Amino acid sequence: MEATAANTVFTTHTPVPAGHDLFEQEMIWGYFRDCFNDLGVQRDDFMRLGGASYGRDFNMTKLALSGTRHHNGVSRIHGRVSSIILSDMWPQVRPCESPMDFITNGVHVSTFLAKEWQDPFEMGLMMWL
């Protein structure tokens, strides 16, 4: 799991607590029991990856954060808000120092910026895309 986590990014898209799904652990076990058995993963070990912080419920966001070493929100403000919402994932650090980072959609500008707006940028900022 560590090899996968070191090379995987989790991007959260929902900056509200309701956007982080919680499921009863028995439901998770019922759906994933065969996968655990096939992979040789112990039930308690897996449940810890998505449990604890929210009582007995399995937290899918915590699972994603446990299985990645790079985490971000989809904007600077979203990264800050997510750091606060998810602060119990890293209780040993203040939200402003959490490993939650951010990205911007700047790499996708050409896919959502109207052609009429692209031309002026191109004239003033050659090769801006």
UniProtKB/TrEMBL annotation:
GO terms for molecular function: 1,4-alpha-oligoglucan phosphorylase activity. The keyword Transferase applies. SUPFAM superfamilies: UDP-Glycosyltransferase/glycogen phosphorylase (SSF53756). It comes from the Bacteria. It is an enzyme of class 2 (transferase). Keywords: Glycosyltransferase, Transferase. Its EC number is 2.4.1.1. This is Glycogen phosphorylase. It comes from Syntrophus aciditrophicus (strain SB).
